[in-house]
Amino acid sequence: MHSLHLIRYGVAYVFIASGLIKLLNPSFKEVFANTGIPSPATLLLLVALTEVIGGGFILFQFYVKRAVVPLLAIMIGALLLTKIPLLHAGFLSFAFEARLDIIMIILLAILWKSYGK
Q1: Which of 49, 55, 61, 75 could share a disulfide with 16, CB 3.0–4.6 Å?
Q2: Would the CA dihedral through 25, 29, 32, 35 be positive or negative?
Q3: Transmembrane stretches, by residue range (predicted)?
Q4: 58-77 pLDDT, tens per residue?
Q5: CA 36 → CA 9, 39, 41, 61, 89, distances in Å?
């Protein structure tokens, strides 16, 4: 199996699972509300649906490059809102907590670069 397929499957899995848990677990409303963003319930729904749909597009190799863009925005937003503040606790704490976010950004960038139009 080509390594790009494995990256696609892994990225799709992470986003589909993440989106579904956001849709099904009511405690995520509190998580989003605690970030101080406006309309947290609406944003939670938008993020969750984008993750599930974008993950599905990537899984089935349908508009991969277009699906990557909003997912990159979500990951960068999550990094800025939830991980950058951890730098006050020290770099190692930040590096540990941000590890998945950073890896997902790298993998999304690989997918974006690897797929044509």
Answers
A1: 55
A2: negative
A3: 7-25, 37-60, 67-86, 92-112
A4: 999 999 999 999 999 999 99
A5: 33, 9, 12, 35, 20
Q: Which two tokens stand for residue 76?
A: 């960068």
Which portions of the chain are predicted below pLDDT 70? Answer: 1, 117
Residue 40 vs residues 7, 44, 85, 102: alpha-carbon distances, Å: 31, 6, 19, 23
Expressed in angstroms, the distance from the first to the final Cα of the chain is 23
Q: Which residue has the tokens 């690897």?
A: 114
Place of tokens 């909003």: 70
Question: What are the helix (H) ranges across the chain?
Answer: 3-24, 27-33, 40-59, 64-78, 91-97, 99-114
